[in-house]
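Bench notes, afternoon.
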Amino acid sequence: MRILKIDHINIRTPLFEETLRFYEDCLGMQRGPAGSVHGRPQNLWLYADGVPMIHVNGPTGDEIVAEVGVKSRLDHFALSCAGLAQWRAHLNAQGVDFREARLQGREVTQLNLFDPNGVKIELQFAEV
């Protein structure tokens, strides 16, 4: 018995359209239909290379959702990436602030950034 990978991430936000646009423009993901909760208007998936990765949905009814930027127990999520130089140039062209860190001992470079909800994203590169 073992865990193979992260299946998906869910972001529930009142900034539904802003969140979708950020991941489309900044990370090159594509919005697509949700495989669950059919008939709900603010319910879509973001895909990378045809694979659903981030489930984005808006709050329903009287549901209480944390305010934008409020810290939660989820600190960040990380994505394995390739093309470090291209990602740097792309993020700069998009006007997205990021911090770069080289993890010694793991030979990994990270680009750390935040989405419109204050969710931290680590783009990880095994490239030197």
